[in-house]
Amino acid sequence: MTQMQYALKGTITKEMMQVATNEELAPEWICSEVAAGRITIPKNINHNFDAVGIGNGLRTKINANIGTSEKHCNQEEEIRKLDISIKYGADSIMDLSTGGDLQKILERVIKHSPVMVGTVPIYKVMANLLMENKTFSQMKPDDIFSEIERQAIMGVDFMTLHCGVTRNSLSFLKNDERILGIVSRGGSLLRRWMEKNNAENPLFEQYDRVLDICEKYDVTISLGDGLRPGAGADASDRGQFAELLILGELVDRARARGVQVIVEGPGHMPLDQIEMNIKLMKKICKQAPFYVLGPLTTDIAPGYDHIVGAIGGAIAAAAGVDFLCYLTPAEHLCLPDEEDVKQGVIASRIAAQSGDIVKGVKSAIRQNNAMSKARRDLNWEAMFNCAIDPEQARKRKSSSESADEDHCTMCGNLCAIKTDRDI
Amino acid sequence: MTQMQYALKGTITKEMMQVATNEELAPEWICSEVAAGRITIPKNINHNFDAVGIGNGLRTKINANIGTSEKHCNQEEEIRKLDISIKYGADSIMDLSTGGDLQKILERVIKHSPVMVGTVPIYKVMANLLMENKTFSQMKPDDIFSEIERQAIMGVDFMTLHCGVTRNSLSFLKNDERILGIVSRGGSLLRRWMEKNNAENPLFEQYDRVLDICEKYDVTISLGDGLRPGAGADASDRGQFAELLILGELVDRARARGVQVIVEGPGHMPLDQIEMNIKLMKKICKQAPFYVLGPLTTDIAPGYDHIVGAIGGAIAAAAGVDFLCYLTPAEHLCLPDEEDVKQGVIASRIAAQSGDIVKGVKSAIRQNNAMSKARRDLNWEAMFNCAIDPEQARKRKSSSESADEDHCTMCGNLCAIKTDRDI
What is the ipTM of this complex? Predict the structure, then answer.
């Protein structure tokens, strides 16, 4: 049975208890929100770890993408990235590997990860076809369902499935010109397959097969946004919302089967469109947990897209987004390295924390106020302890000329806090 | 005559022409906005450089703080920081030096800077008193006016003056408990002086003397927010707004004399309070240009406060803020080094650009769309040219395994743009 099916029967599972404890909320309330689909607890029945919830009333969670690519493939490096992600506070890992022995890498990630693991199964399908010297157009619908089932058996907790890239949504995309077309790998592959085979997206057409598998292993479906805008100028167009309407229907169908589901969102988007998008999505998808990539509020900062993503992510979280996918400084340029992963996770945590203060998440407000009190008391050890990255904060202070002073080298004895305290 | 006085007579100055050209706007419109005080052109009659405007309808500007401190004092390093700030796109430099030969440093900064220069004159007053083994409480009101005049003669373009820290605003602060009290150096010094001397703030009581000097040299007054919140929990309290009401009156009095004026704002502030604060300030101060430090949407990220400041700054700019003061990774820990300055300027530019897209600034939208078109065409040279930091973007791509490919190592041949283009 899935967590949602237990919740619908009023059974409070061990996982719901873990979420309740972690979030300082009542288990009964967690159970009723899971039953309603407003909270999900992505946890495959074949994967053992401490469960974490995503959704209404909970701390905003963050995901770190790791994984090899065709051009850069080193399993050990990816495992190190996983460790770094966990160290700096990721709540979830997605293995997006597309190079090397994908089966082996995913096995290692699932075994090694102390947090939920997500995938995009279509990447593996594509890689298999390439190894057989086939193109993606030659994919058989059964290939994708077999891969979903294989990964479900392995213990994957949530899967991005681009079920909303359909003839209907693509027709709206076609009639509303974009600078960039489709920037989702899954979305662009499915569109190509549909055009070459003159057929509907199998993930949509045979959605019940998806539900069968996900119900069996309690895999949470992450409904992918294959038509997400890849340029600020393309944001909030008819193609994007046509897909969203379909995702809304697919949320209903998953819930009717007791299958847990979250919905993915954009993308590149001007700052003033973010709140509208979040509220619209939450309405259309009946308060399903919402998972965003970015949004990126400007396109001109390659090398610094973790900062751009933190801007959009903070606004999105404050507007109700539940789950942030990190962006690293390498975005749009290359596969991230270990330092990129660290910077990406920290930037996402800043965004999540900024949102959580607005959401009224108790632990976030407590941590924020503890920092302010430590500053009032000029208690540097307490400041370091409250910091997102205590090592970095300590390093900067302790390598300065005021290492052992109660003030810092910015103000010296002109420190406003000291002046104010002396009155 | 000041730029505002020329504008009130309908005279379009060389400076207004420079602003009009730079902003792709009509000189007549610039002139009328300067006359109304909704645009300022900070430029001392004794300082020669290409003028830049701040305010309504213009590109959001960014300021970089440089300057020595008591604990870290190296003039050459500060000049290098100035050069780095300019290289990465700062529109303004504030010399906040508090250590060493302050007169000499400021002279060098004014001479060396190709952009407007700002100061906080009270720092110099304090430093002089310390050299004479006096405390700030022993300051004579004439000391501060002499220093303002000395700096005006030297060519300082704008000065932060904490005129709104008054008996009235301090009484509101006292009755509305904060975690952190006053975190503005100028604000805390003035409060101490007022309490020790049982007197009103001379910058408020003798505001006409301030106006006399600023009118003579066309120094733009930057009305400081001495009571800005230094903790998210302290934001938007009665002390903060009591000061704002006073600043609103002082804006009127400056405008009545033809003296240019901008208003400074917070500070540490939860994300959902930013827009309200900006709109309130703009209303109370009759659309005077608004200059903010941050706002910082969480307190727990020392080492990464440039990211936190970019979140708040982007939201503030989109809501109408005209001028962003940068924050660096060193904020709350130590005096920034050269790398901090670079990171701070770039983060602020990302924030400004994110706001400018919302404001409809043509050059910002053009640059954003040029990047998206370059991405569509997989034209890497064009991407680097559109980037905020072309060197960094180029370095990451060219040091990857896909250095000479049209794709990058993130997706390899699975690149969605390539897939989409091939359809």
Answer: 0.97
Q: Which of B343, B360, B377 is at the close of a domain?
A: B360
Q: Are residues B164 and B197 in the same domain?
A: yes
Q: Using the beta-carbon criterion (under 8 Å), do B350 and A307 form an inter-chain contact?
A: yes
Taking CB atoms and an 8 Å limit, are A396 and B195 in contact across chains? no
Tens of pLDDT, residues B123-162: 999 988 988 889 889 999 999 999 999 999 999 999 999 9
B121 touches chain A (CB under 8 A): no
Strands (DSSP E) contained in A9-121 are: 39-40, 54-55, 61-66, 92-95, 116-119
B121 and B143, same structural domain? yes
Q: In this structure, is residue A58 part of a structural domain?
A: yes
Question: In angstroms, what separates the C-alpha of A195 from chain B's closest C-alpha?
Answer: 8
Last residue of a domain, one of B360, B375, B393: B360
- Is B73 at the interface with chain A, CB within 8 A? no
Q: Are residues A265 and A126 in the same domain?
A: yes
pLDDT digits (tens, 9 = 90+) for A89-113: 999 999 999 999 999 999 999 999 9
Q: Name the band, by pLDDT with cuts 50, 70 and 90, for residue A423.
A: low
Q: How far apart are CA A47 and CA A110, in angstroms?
A: 8
pLDDT more than 70, % of chain B: 100
> Is A290 a member of any domain?
yes
| B237 and B281 part of one domain | yes
Residue with tokens 């390659």: A302
Which of A182, A389, A415 faces B420 most closely, judged by CB atoms?
A182
On the question of pLDDT at A1 being above 80, the answer is yes
A2 part of a folded domain:
no
CB of A300 within 8 Å of any CB in chain B? yes
Which of helix, strand or coil describes residue B384? helix
Burial class (CB in 10 A: 0-12, 13-18, 19+), B294: buried
Mutate to test the interface with A, among B74, B307, B379 (most CBs of A within 10 A): B307
Residues forming a β-bridge with B152: none
For B229, nearest residue in chain A (alpha carbons)? A372
Shortest CB distance from A412 goes to which of B98, B231, B357? B98
